[in-house]
């Protein structure tokens, strides 16, 4: 059942509209029209104690700026584009640059800061955003819709759709930060598993420079392993990023294109018993270990620390516009962009 929830954020500005999805097992998921963001996900642990497993800001001012992208929908382009430049139908396009000389997550004025049009029904929550021609430097008007559904099995299904009136890149993702212990500690004890034999190595700016096998490296999560110890491995890529901020090739057979929905990752917190499963239609899964969280003011009235949360962002490959299969991420008039990502939260017996 979906119910409208009065805003609980103390703000001097016009309040952002919030809706809460509830299921039969004491889960509550709150969504904001600002950035179409996932604000809170309250869920019980193995002892029945309910806690919020998402990181977030203390008030709506934080979401209006959202420099950490907490919970938001990211677009038009999730992750990075080298120097913000790419070729489209023989012409060079310059997108906004906001991260070490590169484009990141739609630029400083991306979808994560926009106020979306929100509507709710018994089927879930839908949000719509019309991005004008030239938004973030991207060509064409883009009409985006995101649909959230929470079922009694703890599955949050996120369906994305978009249409454009001119050829334009589209690569959307959801950007929730999880901490399955509810914030009582960092995520070092979380056991992570990712179904990928390969990941993308990056340069100092986070731009992919090649495909590498995970075997024999800290990036090998084909079997469950604790996140914390891997952060200290003597690995050049870990040192470069200050932790994990890399895309895993979870569907290498798809050649950078979307495919059928399948489970690609699992995370388990031994202390709380909570388990997160991630399924997606996308070829890439960005694992980010919260390397830049230190000092970000959170909702508990204290700043977050490094590695207080993690992200598993499903999307196309970073900088795919300048690599193989660039055509797979160009949306043309008459086509419909679609992707689905599912986060399932449950208890491990």
From TrEMBL:
EC number(s) in its UniProt entry?
5.1.3.3
A Gene Ontology BP annotation from the UniProt entry: galactose catabolic process via UDP-galactose, Leloir pathway
EC top class named in words = isomerase
Q: Where is the active site?
A: 175, 313
Residues engaged in binding beta-D-galactose:
79-80, 175-177, 245
Under SUPFAM superfamilies, the record lists: Galactose mutarotase-like
Q: Which reaction does it catalyse?
A: alpha-D-glucose = beta-D-glucose
This protein's UniProt keywords:
Carbohydrate metabolism, Isomerase
Where does this protein act, in terms of pathway?
Answer: Carbohydrate metabolism; hexose metabolism
Give GO terms: molecular function aspect only: aldose 1-epimerase activity; carbohydrate binding
Is Isomerase a UniProt keyword of this protein? yes
Instruction: Output the superkingdom of the source species.
Output: Bacteria
A Pfam entry, by short name: Aldose_epim
For this chain, the family text in UniProt reads: Belongs to the aldose epimerase family.
Which NCBIfam families is this protein grouped with?
Answer: PRK11055.1
| UniProt name for this protein | Aldose 1-epimerase
